[in-house]
Fold these 2 entries.
Entry 1:
Amino acid sequence: MKKLIDKLYETGSLDQSEYSELISGRNYELSQYLFSLAREVRKRYYGEKVYIRGLIEYTNYCKNDCYYCGIRRSNKNVSRYRLDRDDILACCKEGYELGFRTFVLQGGEDPYFTDERMCDIISRIKDGYPDCALTLSIGEKSRESYRAFFDAGADRYLLRHETADSAHYGKLHPDELSSDNRKRCLYDLKEIGYQVGTGFMVGSPYQTAENLAKDMMFIKELKPSMVGIGPFIPHKDTPFADKPSGTLELTLFMLGLIRLTLPYALIPSTTALGTIAPNGRELGLKAGANVIMPNLSPVEVRKKYMLYDNKICTGEESAQCIQCLKNRVSSVGYEIVTDRGDAARAED
Ligand code: SAH
């Protein structure tokens, strides 16, 4: 097994059966070995730096009905909200003063935000903050829409593929959503010129080691600039309310594998990881992650953007959040920087 980790470290790739063998055969000792190599690789490209992204959750309306997600359209217990353009710009202003140089607009797939409205918001943000990168995380759109957002100034796009296996995808989503379309979106985004981020949930219902190995193969093929993963966490008002959460241990192992597979990638230590364990995000950094995405949404709406139960950081003001994170990051020997934090090098 150790040989497989060495091979991954030396060549940056394994075949699917090797990834699968490693994932199924992992143990504490192997994990520690993987993390030490992941830290070394991460240090080579990014030193001790941790980049921060200000996350603005601007709408929890969603036309989709993903079985795992707390803001799915069938959840009638959600109190729905939208931020308007001025609210969003106010979040950016506060974030800029706190040192953020990347803003991430994330939301449900909300038809109220037409391409025209989105382009207006994007161009206002870029006019006001030309030294900042703007990331969108607003789901599956047509190629034309992606192009329009890019032309309006968006730099990056996050769209997790969720699972690369289409049969597994079908167990997590209703029939109108498909793995093929999600992948089509990712390739369109890349071709248009976005820095693209993909990723998946760890421990989602019905997931196997083979599925995770397939996720690694997909990531290897797409060569995204960013890869976001986090544990699946059940939400009480979804069909998966009774399913178990993904584990800290497997999520960290997957982070290590991703760092060795894509040495240049920007990899967040996610809020979901911090939700399943009090020091989850610190451990994520020690397993190879180098990005943190604090919440910049107004405190009044934070509890309404509940993708899963017990989500952390929904009570504090942004300024408090960032101070807490600075302490957490420095406790494990890393340092938050004020920087756009582009990938060290394009993957291809
Ligand atoms: N509508 C956008 C943003 C989705 S929310 C889109 O479709 O891309 C961002 C991510 O949260 C999702 O891609 C999913 O991987 C994750 N997520 C959703 N529900 C979750 C849950 N119950 N547990 C853990 N992660 C979840």
Entry 2:
Amino acid sequence: MDFQHIFASRASRMKASEIRELLKLLEQPGIISFAGGIPDPAIFPAAAFKEAYQDALSAEKQSTALQYSVSEGYLPLRKWLAQQMAKLGVDCGPENILITSGSQQALDYLGKLFLSPNDTALINWPTYLGALGAFNAYEPRYDRLQVNGNRSAADYAAEAEAAGGRVKFAYLSADFSNPTGETVDQRGRENLLALAEDLDCAVIEDAAYQSLRYDGEAIAPILALEMARKGDINACRTVYCGSFSKTLSPGLRVGWVCAAAPVISQMVLLKQAGDLHSSTVNQMAIHHVAESQFDSHVAKLHSAYSARRDAMLAALHEFMPEGVSWTRPEGGMFVWITLPVGLNGADLLQRALETVKVAFVPGRAFFADGSGENTIRLSFSCADEATIREGVQRLASVVSAEIAAQ
Ligand code: PMP
């Protein structure tokens, strides 16, 4: 049966992710993959998780671990997170924390909470593909967020109104963003807060990579900057989305939202309607591991990933031809490459897979307007330094051939 005519109009904006389709190709032997933005499984704190599950399933705790629980999330974990947020400059209590099934669920719920059809979401060009996927279902219009640009709030508001709605939020990943690896400096964060005040909209701060800073000075989260001005989290318009996926494990699907109580209580209702609560046993396991070794484990990630980032930047410098430029991230998992105009990232991927067995993600999917044809995203998180050098050398040979054929 053809169901298209009975699907809701929102279904027409749901597309298969180019990345997911591509991941299928990566099962071929001998591929060097810079494609998936995933943690290196060799560094998972597996022994600590084994111990954590044993503890959660002990006679004393199993009736909690295996039972339904509250939608807000496991209280000891929320208390631990409130302490972590305080260290980042966000003074809050567990009532300001909601546990979600990964930060992806938070993005979906925030889309559901804020966006009516034709409302405007301000996003970066490019932005996290999964955020587009989450928000698309709520049929928004996108406009380009430029924190250091000269468009006024009145301009943004007028265009949003002409499109039949209003600006509801600005979404961004301020630290080592997916896909560019770039960080918004403190001035940019302050500008964004001023813009959000003028537009009277929310700010969604996606902090998925925030703990992965390898060098340079840490910049306070947007929520912390707003707290410093307002002194009370319940007066803040920033909604902070955190995740354990890039630090401890993505498989357990544990993330959190830290925000003003009215946002949290509304999201609790969404959570009740959506999945009741995130897995209790997984929240207990995350709490057990985070409490005993979050900082030491993150330090391990820093040393492994920074060496890989350095290897990638060195190889790009050594092998990439004239006319190719790239970002120099201070953390995270990604380097973003801009190829000469006229080259196409998707064609390059096909050629690179066929001829030199190197995979990456073409950049176009990260642009809400379908631009960015000559960009690609490379992830350095999962290959060792020698493999990274080899992969970049092979990729550069294909780029050089494409340029020569132009
Ligand atoms: N935000 C960003 C920027 C991401 O890159 C990802 C994962 N790739 C997520 C959110 C979602 O991660 P999770 O649901 O595993 O927390």
